[in-house]
Amino acid sequence: MGLRSVLRVVGFALAALALPSCGGSDASSLFAGPPGAVGSGGGGWQPPGAGGSAGAFGTGGSFLPPNAGGSFGVGGSGSGGDVPGNGGDVGAGGTSPEAGADAGDPLGNLPPALRDIAKCSFTGTWGTFVTVPVNWPGAPFVLLEGQGTIMQWTLSHRVQDSLLELHETVVACSIFLPDLQGSVLTSNQKFGIRFPNEIFDRGVAPPWPFHTTAYLATDHVEYDTELIATLTGITLPNPTTDAWPVPPSNSSFRDDDQDGSPGVTVNAVDPGTDPSYNFPPVGLPQFLGDYPRARTIDIVSRSVAKLHGTVTNCDELNGSVAIQVLAGTPAINSTVIGCVRSDGQTCVQAEADFLNQNRPQFTPTGLGTFKSVRLAEGATCADVRARFPN
Predict the structure, then answer these.
(1) Among 86, 89, 56, CA closest to 72
(2) Cα dist from 305 to 65, 96, 330, whole Å
């Protein structure tokens, strides 16, 4: 297949991005050219006894894809006496190499796997589930090293800009962190940190915009996104490229959950609900007493990733997630900026600092994965979480 033909196939395969709905347009209206023109008439009229009767009109060319209309029928010539002229020949099918090999199948040039995808529109509302495998080092005497999986749910709105490009806005709908195991000073107790759904359902966090570029890879369609930043409780001037600030400026904090505290408030798993957990310590144990512990923790966080995917069908995309490294550090960043103790008292700064210094420092152990599915227009974060239950 020549370069010109390959480029045409790419155009066909991705023309779907401009259609109003998946499979919603008739294929002939997308890929078929106009029918061949009617053949020209036979010999001109002659008086009786002079020339032959006029030849019949030739039949027009048959229906073909673009640039392949039939050529004109050849008119019959007049004959002597009363013999009628010959009718025009049937219009011949086009011979341009850009025309499809089979005039009856306007998608005939596409690989079989692309014929359905070529009718898709990816404009709409989508829910995505992301997993990233991570590990983290221990914090001396407080936290053991460990490994697990970070999970994230997002809601996005995609819009087609051209044959090969879309733009999209995305918001986080939930975040799940792996459980942590305490070390010697914490009696090897288990800690769990949970993001309440209300953080995301309030819709305060601004959506993050990015672009996606699609391309043909042999017999399927792949795509790559720009860098995607997910910010929770914080605003940064250049979130996809800047190093994480240490410490972040108070002026950059947002109250995404609108609870009156900067950042977002996450909950420690309550041992009264599940005795296998305990609240995380916010300092060393007091004499003849237990550790001071935190019931809720105020944090700000950021992740920066790039997605590479494959179009599965009109309603599903799958692929890999690459967490970026910024200033030598994986862009899964967080800072503890406050807390409330299990006795209901607000943590002093030293206690918040203790939590921050002993928090897990997550590092990806490989590429993550994602699955993105089409949702009904008007879908919410609750719909995303219901579609991908944990």
Answers:
(1) 89
(2) 42, 46, 10
For residue 219, list its beta bridge partners. none
Q: How far apart are the first and last CA of the chain?
A: 47
* Residues written for the chain: 390
In the numeric block, the tokens 């229906």 are attached to 63
Question: Which range is least confidently modeled, 133-142, 188-197, 214-223, 247-256?
Answer: 214-223
pLDDT in tens, 106-152: 666 777 767 777 778 889 999 999 999 999 999 988 899 999 999 99
The alpha helices in 122-196, defined as continuous H runs, are none
The pLDDT tens digits for 346-368 are 999 999 999 999 999 999 999 99
E strands, 5-145, where? 124-136
CA distance 241 to 171: 19
C-alpha closest to that of 219 among 118, 327, 361: 118
